Amino acid sequence: MLDIIKRLKEEIGALTASDLNELESLRIKYLSKKGEITSLFNEFRNVPAEQKREVGKLLNELKDEALQKINSLKERISDNKQTDTEIDLTRSAYPVKLGTRHPISIVKNEICDIFGKLGFSIAEGPEIEDDWHVFSSLNFPEDHPARDMQDTFFIQRSPDVLLRTHTSSVQTRVMGKTQPPIRIICPGRVYRNEAISARAHCFFHQVEALYVDKNVTFADLKQALLFFAKEMFGANTKIRLRPSYFPFTEPSAEMDISCNLCGGKGCSFCKGTGWVEILGCGMVDPNVLEACGIDSKVYTGYALGMGIERVTNLKYQVKDLRMFSENDKRFLEEFEAAL
Ligand code: DAH
Predict the structure, then answer these.
(1) Cα(333)–Cα(326) distance, rounded to whole angstroms?
(2) Which sign, positive or negative, has the C-alpha torsion 82, 84, 85, 91?
(3) Does the pLDDT of residue 124 top 90, yes or no?
């Protein structure tokens, strides 16, 4: 018996196991009901009385060692496992919170995606523009108030170089270079010389859409508007068009959507009317087509333009325009879920 105990002691001291299965078979081999160490305990009664004290002590020691060995192997295996698979070693030591997309970008992407479904592709133009693309080509009369220093930021005191006041300038940039069919959506930043308040800012964002082809009619415009309103604000959204005036469209209209807060019943958001204004639109004025070298007897088109801040406000009720440019993380994080 003493020899067997000695042998087992050596064996156990040298045990290794690379995974939990291997370890379990070792446990079974030595410590289960029929395990080698357990069998020794069963044979203990046959040990002569004078040896019982010594053998019993060694036997208990052997069992303790075996248990300890198995536990330490188990710990080592689970440590290894963690290093291999559960900890991302490329992670930085301190938790880094990812930023979120800006609400203006979220809404801009949404608008572009919706028009993308109708076959519109994105076009962009410069923010520093000339008078021709922002005003003259778009049929603004010489003395139109928008050309005034009070509304427009001019650059280097040149009356010809200015910060664009609307993304309609991208219309005439594209029409000047391309013959129809043209179907573009133009997102971008625009600038106006306004005092900054909750309701006005010196820069904001617009999306312009333009469709020019043979036989484009007001009915096409209306259908595109309805599609956009339902996709953006929900299938129950209604639209209404009011006659309006823009130099570059004839006829022109402004579109309201049924208030998406009260569903059209009337609330403080829609000032009790059930409707909220969202964008301007119309049929491209033949003068604009001609100014860009497009034959207005062959082609017609529609255009529309909207403020992204306005759409964001309608969708998320952002009351103060200044929030969009303050970089307040608490505000920006509110849009995590909208991504
Ligand atoms: N450019 C106009 C603005 O800044 C918006 C607009 C109105 C664009 C009517 C259009 C349109 O294309 O047809 O207020």
Answers:
(1) 13
(2) positive
(3) yes
Which residues are near ligand 1 (CB < 6 Å)? 166, 168, 208, 246, 249, 280-282, 303-305
Do the beta carbons of residue 147 and residue 160 sit within 8 Å? no
Q: Phi, psi (5° rounding) for residue 143?
A: -100, 25
| Ligand 1 atom at minimal distance to the Cα of residue 190 | 4
Report the mean per-residue pLDDT for the chain.
Answer: 91
Gap from CA of 264 to ligand 1 centroid (Å): 25
pLDDT digit string, tens, across residues 141-181: 988 888 877 789 998 778 889 999 999 999 999 999 999 99
State how far the alpha carbon of 175 is from the alpha carbons of 83, 101, 120, 130, 217, in Å.
61, 32, 15, 16, 18
Q: What is the pLDDT of residue 122?
A: 98
User: Which residues are CB-neighbours of 130 under 8 A, at least 6 positions away?
Assistant: 160, 161, 162
Query: In this structure, are strands 121-122 and 182-191 parallel, antiparallel, or unpaired?
Result: parallel
